[in-house]
Amino acid sequence: VITSDEALALPKKPETIVVLGGGYIAVEFAGYFHGYGSEVHIVYRADSPLRGFDEDVREHIQDLLKAKGIHVHSGESPLSIEEAADGKLKLKTDKGTEIVADNVMFATGRKPNSAELGLENVGVKMDPKSGKILVDDYSRTNVESIFAIGDVTDRIALTPVALMEGMAMARTMFTDSSQKPDYENVPSAVFSQPQIGSCGLTEAQAAKKY
Description:
The chain is of the alpha/beta class. The protein folds into two domains: about 5-110, FAD/NAD(P)-binding domain, CATH 3.50.50.60; about 120-200, 3-Layer(bba) Sandwich (FAD/NAD(P)-binding domain), CATH 3.50.50. The protein has helices spanning about 5, 25-35, 55-70, 160-175, 205-210, and strands at about 15-20, 40-45, 70-75, 80-85, 90-95, 100, 105, 190, 195-200. The strands form three sheets. A four-stranded parallel beta sheet has the order 3-2-1-7, covered by helices on one side. A three-stranded antiparallel beta sheet has the order 4-5-6, with no helix packed on it. It has a two-stranded antiparallel ribbon with strand order 8-9. It is globular.
């Protein structure tokens, strides 16, 4: 059982691999392994992958995954993973699907590495379930002298967003004017095949707002 960290350092190509998750990393690595000739199964709970994108985009990329020969198991969740005598892994889902594979890759999200920072000793509030640090609009925690930005917070976990938050925080801390990060039109990209990019509101968000 691996994550995206180990996936790039495998000693050999898996003949069959199961990718768990329907987000950026899962879709990208499903295409990555398929491109190397592996038999790929992708399993996710939603009806289509890439939550947060327009529905037609999500449905289109799902259709393309299937057209490439990737086995798409939408609306399913893993129940168990067992190792056989030959070292292969058998994954069972809540819909009764059984898949035998060389590797199972978890791409179901990450938790911030905040547990060993001693934040609880100084009273910084964190989400008890996810470990994410809670901040206000200016990246301040509930402790006046401590700020937090990037994936460790309860906001958008993208590299350019973290950079924007850092610049806004620096202006708040070191200039005479405070600045909030602007999440109105955040660009994002998925390096799938083909690639997907978006900026601004989805159709559903625009309909709700306007």
